[in-house]
Amino acid sequence: MVKTMSDNYYDPEDLEDFPNIGEDAPELGAAFFNYYQKATEGGALSEREKSLIALAVATVRHCPYCIDAYTNKCLSLGVADDEMMEAVHVGAAMSAGDTLAHATQMRKILKKKGM
Amino acid sequence: MALTPTINDIPGDQRRDSFRDHLAQDGLYPLTANGIEILQLNITRKCNLSCRHCHAGGTPESSLHMKEKVIDKCFEIAGYPGIETIDLTGGAPELHPSFMNIVERFHSLGKRLLVRSNLVILLEEPFQHLPDFMARHNVEIVASLPDIHGARTDRQRGSGVFQKILEGIRTLNEIGYGKQNSGLILDLVHNPAGAYLPGSQEALESEYRRVLSRDYGLAFNKLFCLTNCPVGRYLDYLEQSGNYALYMKALKSAFNPSAARNAMCRITLSVDPEGNLHDCDFNQMLNMGIGGNRVSVFDFDYEQLASRSIQIRDHCFACTAGAGSSCQGVTV
Predict the structure, then answer these.
(1) What ipTM does the predicted assembly reach?
(2) What are the CA-CA distances from residue A115 to residues A107, A108, A110, A112 (Å)?
(3) Rounded distance, CA B170 to CA B84, Å?
(4) CA-nearest residue of chain A to B195?
(5) Hey, are the CB atoms on B148 and A77 less than 8 Å from each other?
C-alpha cells in the first residue's frame, strides 16, 4: 500500500521505513545493520548501559527518532526517569564542555595576535 | 465505555492485518490447544487494590466469588492427570471467603499450586497468618511488582503500594520464601508502567535482583515479564492517553510466530468465578467463551477441550510480541 507522504520533515511513521534504507545499497545497508546490532547489544557493557549512552547521544545529536526509540528502550529495560535525565545531563555537559574547550583555540590566537 | 471504537470492538476475522492474518501467514490459524496443563481459576473479583493496569477489573466493592459447587467441580477437573498446575487468581484470591479451604483442597492433589498475590493483602488484618499457611501448603506465590522504581509502581498500583509490596516480600523472605534451597517459591511479575513493551526478561530480572538485594536486602526466585494486554483498565488508559494506536502498532510489529506457537492459551484452561470456561484470563474479561459459546465447568470434556480451537482477537498480539508473554513470563 502506498502511503501519502507526510507534510512534516520528522514523523514517527518515518521510522517504519528505516529497515529499508539498504534497498539501494544492500551490502552497505546489511553491513550497517549488522554493526548497529553488535554495537548496541550487551557485551562488556550491558544493554542497559549502552541504551543510556545512546539516549545521551540521541539528545546531543537532536535526533527525534533516536530519542523516541531509546527513551522507550530505557523504559523497557527498567531505567528510572532520574537515571535517564542524568544521562542527558552528561550529554549536555559534554556539549557545553567541548564548546568551552574550543575557547582555548580562541585564547591561543588572542595571545598570539595581541600586543 | 471506550472513548473511540477500538480494534477489539471488531471481530478479528473481519479486518486486514488482524491477529488472524498474522497467524495465517505463518500457518498457525486456527490456533489450537495442545492439552491442558494449567487450570487457572479466577476465584474472586474482589480486591483490596484498584490498579490502573488491572485487566480483571478487581475492586474492593466486588462481591463476586466462585461458588462452592463450581469449586467442587474444579477440584474434580484438577485431578485429571494431564493437569499439572492449579493457578489461583482474582481479584485478590485471598479475599475469597473460603480461600484457606480452597488451598487445602487443591494442595491435597499434590500438584503445583500457585497463588497470585498482590502481597499488600498479606499485611492487612485478618490475613497476616496467610504467609505461614501458604508455606505449610507449599504454595508458590506469584506477586506483581510492576517496576523496581517506587514512583512508577505507585503510579500504577496506588500511592504507597511499592513500600507495602517490599514489606510483603520481607515478610515472605523471613519464612523462607524466595530464598535459595528453601523450597518456597516467590516469583515476581514485571509489567510496564505505561504504553511500552517490556525489555529482556533476563536483563530486568538481573536489575530487580540487584536493586532489591542492594537497597532493601530482599530476595526472590524468578522474574516474569508480562506485556500489558489491551483490555480492561489498561485499554482505558491507552485510549485516554492517546497511546492506543501506537501501542497496537508496536505489538503488531513485534509479532513473533514462535511466541504464538508457545502461547499460554494452548495449554491453559481459564475458569471465571461463575464457572464459565475461557481460553485465557484476557478472553475471560472480554466475555469470550470457549468456541465463542458459553461453556461451563459442568460441560467439561477433557478430550474436546484439550484440542479446541482458541478464540482470538487482536488483544492476543500482547502474548505474541517479542519473546512472548504469559502468566509465567516469556515463552520463547
Answers:
(1) 0.76
(2) 14, 13, 9, 8
(3) 29
(4) A72
(5) no
B150 vs A: CB within 8 A: no
**Cα–Cα distances in Å, from B119 out to A33, A39, A114, B170, B265?**
44, 40, 73, 10, 26
pTM: 0.88
- The pLDDT tens digits for A33-82 are 999 999 999 999 999 999 999 999 999 999 999 999 999 999 999 999 99
In the numeric block, which cell numbers belong to residue B306?
Answer: 484439550
Instruction: Please indicate whether, in this complex, the C-beta atoms of A78 and B199 are within 8 angstroms of each other.
Output: yes
Q: Could you tell me the sign of the dihedral formed by the alpha carbons of B150, B156, B160, B165, in that order? A: negative
Interface test with A, best of B196, B208, B209, B211 (most A CBs within 10 A): B196
Smallest CA–CA distance from B193 into chain A, residue: A75
Contact assignment for B198 to A76 by CB distance below 8 Å: yes
Backbone φ, ψ for residue B90 (5° rounding): -160, -140
| Partners of B296 in beta bridges | B276
